[in-house]
Amino acid sequence: MVSFIKEISFRWSDLDPNFHVRHSAYYDFGAQHRIEILEQLGLTLRVMQTQSFGPVLFREECVFRKELKLSDKIFIHTKTSKMKADASRWSIIHEFRKEDDTLCAVITVDGAWMDTKLRKLASPTPEIAIQALSIFPKSDDFIGL
């Protein structure tokens, strides 16, 4: 598998006054896709809640290349671009592509796992998080940290 791919549909509320997709909608779609992928890999919200950990982001950045409009058919491609061997730190990228494969935007998030009871980085990384991220597709330019 090269990446997780999902077709996304825009709503009227995703548009800005210029009638193209507003900047913050991209971040919302990226966050939703990450959670859906983790769920597919067995790392459900319930598992994270019972084991008292969850993802924490240090950086989230979007590079906008082509505007998106309400009627565009868009696919979000998600994969890891960097990760420590113990999955304690990672970077995930989301590429927004039109059906002709035109790259419209790229979101990059850098994150780790947080112990939700101690409110600090989880150490060691929960085993289920290591397993899920080891399955996660990697970018062509993947870097092991």
TrEMBL record:
MF GO annotations: fatty acyl-CoA hydrolase activity
Keywords: Hydrolase
Enzyme Commission code(s) on record: 3.1.2.-
Entry keyword Oxidoreductase: no
Enzyme class, UniProt record, top EC level: hydrolase
Protein known as: Acyl-CoA thioesterase
Organism of derivation: Flavobacterium flavipigmentatum
